[in-house]
């Protein structure tokens, strides 16, 4: 902070407001960013982060009365071209590249070099070699973007911003689709750009990323500026309280009595396998229990869930519901047996983004509404969707609103509501809070707790160990396609991150081998 006080801010935003018809999206928001700093912007979905960045990028025009300064000078940003001239570049979560063009053509897009009336591709290719080398790209300027990975495409976006002399770089959830290794490489690049004086505004819901990268954090809530924390002041308790207006003690909801409410065994897997990612798994799920499945990436967690749901075919083993063997060959048979699965990729495999909330909620059970002659009872469907919206507190203007226009947390609740309409016995939730803000996470935990109290058995697959520790009654830990250990429940072993990682990494196996 003392170092920053000696500098002139590269960006200052004062009293920024933005009104849409019937909605005050921003109300007198402040933001100050210094050169050579990583300034994180946090808040729930709908807090106003994206709206503020769209004002900065020229995509939106702020209401009268606010002011934006670059290097201490007041500026007017009427459109994205103005923003680029002031050195502002935004890399959105949905990348804006043209896959059919080369890296060089994407970097120069809108600034193409010409020789006469023709585009001078050769000069463009030579002109972006230096920036690609500087950023450590493993590909060249003639590579087609369609042939690059997500991480490499993000590097093209960053190269384009640097090549256009960007001085303020906004990064919106840049690691969402990256592997752990790719994320580490991205962090190294971000830190390098910071050391060279670039100002980076970093938007993320992931606390670990905020801790690792941030010099300062500004927090927004309900379209207003709440305050900021320096690196030394950062803590999950303070951030959560600023974002949602309450203490972290109420974040994880577990009102049910894990021992008292645990009922009979409702689902069993015996030697279940696919001979690829899953190798003979045995476990039981009790009524009224939250059973978490943890493990490192590639351990077989999702593959096990897909076997249970019939999305993939098992090669051996069997499954039982209420003690009776069931043969599930496809998801329809799983639904008929009382098993539902919330996929980890809700956008590609879950909700239909271009359909309404109403249609998404009624998709699976619309056949129940058929009257004689096959005519649908539309009133019944309307009542169902309105009830679901109320029960799960889905924030939506109307049941006819498109799901694609909702926040990630509300999309997840729409998908969960649709599954619950089938009245399941077993609910499998694969990364249920991925990509949703901290407030929506808390709401989803409350929903899980309520469902458990109603007698449903819930399996939660999660990569976030604090989440597992916070909501689990019992944890199965997978490693290399097998269940390598169990924590909590009858084991008597406390559910902690250390105990889970003990089994996930195989440390217990190594210890046993050394003992022998």
UniProtKB/TrEMBL annotation:
<keyword id="KW-1003">Cell membrane</keyword>
<dbReference type="GO" id="GO:0005886">
    <property type="term" value="C:plasma membrane"/>
</dbReference>
<dbReference type="Pfam" id="PF00005">
    <property type="entry name" value="ABC_tran"/>
</dbReference>
<dbReference type="GO" id="GO:0016887">
    <property type="term" value="F:ATP hydrolysis activity"/>
</dbReference>
<feature type="domain" description="ABC transporter">
    <location>
        <begin position="11"/>
        <end position="247"/>
    </location>
</feature>
<feature type="domain" description="ABC transporter">
    <location>
        <begin position="261"/>
        <end position="505"/>
    </location>
</feature>
<dbReference type="GO" id="GO:0005524">
    <property type="term" value="F:ATP binding"/>
</dbReference>
<protein>
    <submittedName>
        <fullName>Monosaccharide ABC transporter ATP-binding protein, CUT2 family (TC 3.A.1.2.-)</fullName>
    </submittedName>
</protein>
<keyword id="KW-0677">Repeat</keyword>
<dbReference type="InterPro" id="IPR003593">
    <property type="entry name" value="AAA+_ATPase"/>
</dbReference>
<dbReference type="InterPro" id="IPR003439">
    <property type="entry name" value="ABC_transporter-like_ATP-bd"/>
</dbReference>
<keyword id="KW-0067">ATP-binding</keyword>
<keyword id="KW-0547">Nucleotide-binding</keyword>
<keyword id="KW-0813">Transport</keyword>
<dbReference type="InterPro" id="IPR027417">
    <property type="entry name" value="P-loop_NTPase"/>
</dbReference>
<keyword id="KW-0762">Sugar transport</keyword>
<keyword id="KW-0472">Membrane</keyword>
<dbReference type="InterPro" id="IPR050107">
    <property type="entry name" value="ABC_carbohydrate_import_ATPase"/>
</dbReference>
<keyword id="KW-1278">Translocase</keyword>
<dbReference type="InterPro" id="IPR017871">
    <property type="entry name" value="ABC_transporter-like_CS"/>
</dbReference>
């Amino acid at each position: 902070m003392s170092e920053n006080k000696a500098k002139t801010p590269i960006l200052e935003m004062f009293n920024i407001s933005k009104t849409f018809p019937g909605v005050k999206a921003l109300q007198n928001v402040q933001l100050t960013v210094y050169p050579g700093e990583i300034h994180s912007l946090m808040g729930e979905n709908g807090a106003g982060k994206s709206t503020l960045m769209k004002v900065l990028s020229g995509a939106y025009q702020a209401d009268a009365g606010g002011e934006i300064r670059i290097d201490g000078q007041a500026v007017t940003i009427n459109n994205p071209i103005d923003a680029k001239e002031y050195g502002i570049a935004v890399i959105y979560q949905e990348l804006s590249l043209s896959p059919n063009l080369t890296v060089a053509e994407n970097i120069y897009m809108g600034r193409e070099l010409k020789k006469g009336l023709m585009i001078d591709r050769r000069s463009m290719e030579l002109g972006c070699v230096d920036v690609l080398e500087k950023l450590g790209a493993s590909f060249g300027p003639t590579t087609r973007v369609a042939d690059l990975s997500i991480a490499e495409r993000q590097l093209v976006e960053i190269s384009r911003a640097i090549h256009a002399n960007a001085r303020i770089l906004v990064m919106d959830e840049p690691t969402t689709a990256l592997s752990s290794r790719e994320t580490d490489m991205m962090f190294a690049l971000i830190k390098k750009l910071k050391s060279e004086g670039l100002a980076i505004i970093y938007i993320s819901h992931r606390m670990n990323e905020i801790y690792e990268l941030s010099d300062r954090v500004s927090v927004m809530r309900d379209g207003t500026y709440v305050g900021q924390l320096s690196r030394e002041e950062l803590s999950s308790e303070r951030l959560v309280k600023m974002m949602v207006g309450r203490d972290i003690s109420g974040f994880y909801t577990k009102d049910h009595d894990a021992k008292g409410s645990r009922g009979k065994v409702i689902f069993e897997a015996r030697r279940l396998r696919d001979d690829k990612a899953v190798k003979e798994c045995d476990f039981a799920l009790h009524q009224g229990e939250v059973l978490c499945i943890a493990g490192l990436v590639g351990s077989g967690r999702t593959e096990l869930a897909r076997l249970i749901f019939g999305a993939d075919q098992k090669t051996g083993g069997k499954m039982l519901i209420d003690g009776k063997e069931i043969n599930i060959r496809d998801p329809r048979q799983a639904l008929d047996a009382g098993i539902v699965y919330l996929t980890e990729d809700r956008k590609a495999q879950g909700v239909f983004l271009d359909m309404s909330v109403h249609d998404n909620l009624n998709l699976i059970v619309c056949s129940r509404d058929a009257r004689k002659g096959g005519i649908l009872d539309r009133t019944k469907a309307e009542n169902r969707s309105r009830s679901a919206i109320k029960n799960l507190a889905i924030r939506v203007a109307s049941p006819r609103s498109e799901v694609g226009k909702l926040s990630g947390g509300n999309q997840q609740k729409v998908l969960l509501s649709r599954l619950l309409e089938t009245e399941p016995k077993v609910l499998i939730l694969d990364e249920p809070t991925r990509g949703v803000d901290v407030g929506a996470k808390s709401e989803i935990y409350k929903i899980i707790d309520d469902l458990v109290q109603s007698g449903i058995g819930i399996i939660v697959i999660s990569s976030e160990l604090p989440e597992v520790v916070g909501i689990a009654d019992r944890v199965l830990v997978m490693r290399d396609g097998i269940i390598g250990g169990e924590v909590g429940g009858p084991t008597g072993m406390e559910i902690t991150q250390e105990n889970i990682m003990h089994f996930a990494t195989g440390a217990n196996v190594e210890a046993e081998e050394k003992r022998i």
